[in-house]
């Protein structure tokens, strides 16, 4: 039996106002992710106009797959703005723990880009945050046994999203069907290796999930 339908997130790298226009024109995805780490100065953007939209604000850390590096103070200021406007944002677990930023109602991300971590440590981290977070997201590059590793995390509950990086896009779709709360696709260009186009995700889910 299929689990609850995952949310399809259309991810857009934001470099300029034209990219914002593209992002805001997307009406068929469940959420649109604004990858603000592609922008030279995301502090200058008008976040008031984003209020009420089904968007995810992401300023990804450079060492967790981000495009540019930013000062922690700037990122914390942005998070304060997003929270004041009620915007959904994606924040790295390590950033939460290092700087004590608010994460309730947010997406808390864990990126495993090198080696195999302890499953017990990841389970403990996920379990600590998943009750208050909108979702806890675990993305990783393949290692021996990674499929079983991700599948075991899905057994923790409905508030988790998992995805492999740099594998065939079919695997991302498979983990979405196994219970990942979120599945990401690209719009203009992939923001992570292995992302399918978001419209392909919508088409697959339309065939499998009937209202």
Q: What can be said about this structure in brief?
A:
The chain has 211 residues and is of the alpha/beta class.
Mind explaining what this structure looks like?
The protein has a single domain, classed as TIM Barrel (Alpha-Beta Barrel), CATH 3.20.20.70. The protein has helices at residues 17-24, 72-84, 93-99, 119-129, 146-154, 169-178, 198-208; strands spanning 7-13, 31-35, 55-58, 88-92, 107-112, 135-140, 160-164, 182-186. The protein has seven helices and eight strands. The model has no long low-confidence stretch (mean pLDDT 95). The chain starts with 6 loop residues before the first strand and ends with a helix. With 211 residues, the protein is an alpha/beta fold. The protein is 33% helix and 20% strand.
